[in-house]
Amino acid sequence: QVQLVESGGGLAQVGGSLSVSCAASGRTFSRYAMGWFRQAPGKEREFVAGISRSGSSTSYSDSVKGRFTISRDNAKNMVYLRMSNLKPEDTAVYSCAATISLVIFTTDSSYDYWGQGTQVTVSS
Fold first, then answer.
1. Which of 89, 111, 116, 123 is nearest to 20 (CA)?
2. How far is CA 1 from the centre of its chain?
3. Residue 56: CB partners within 8 Å, gap ≥ 6?
């Protein structure tokens, strides 16, 4: 089992940058593929980015590709999402998720553990 706690986020200007982090508990973090999802008010939760257990593979939604970067540090049990060139439509609650897997999943139902989320607001 793993527990996830997000931090970071906050308020950013259009075109600006922001980072969110996810701290994981447990000694088997490197067994988990990790994902970042987001949910805006009145909308369904959507996949943002995912990273494989080793960090050698990543996946992004089309809406953030080229603007967001996911990374992980298995020694520190951390996953990061660096967001740049932010747009108002990036405003949402961002949550990290974990699943024991060799592949990166893009559907939220494939993930077993979730953090509580952190708010990201992009103002114009």
1. 116
2. 19
3. none
Vertex 44, ends 73 and 18: CA angle to 5°? 40
Query: In the chain, what percentage of residues exceed pLDDT 70?
Result: 100
- Give, as one character, the DSSP assignment of residue 89: G
Looking up tokens 């701290």 gives 23
pLDDT in tens, 89-102: 999 999 999 999 99
As a whole number of angstroms, the distance between CA 58 and CA 35 comes to 9
The answer to whether 118 and 20 have CB atoms below 8 angstroms apart is yes
Farthest CA pair distance, the chain: 42
Which residues of the chain carry a pLDDT beneath 50? none
Q: Which residues contact 68 (CB under 8 A, 6 or more apart)?
A: 48, 49, 60, 81, 82, 83, 84
* φ, ψ at 115 (rounded to 5°): -85, 180
Residue 1: predicted pLDDT: 85
What contacts 93, CB < 8 A, 6 or more positions away? 38, 39, 40, 117, 118, 119, 120
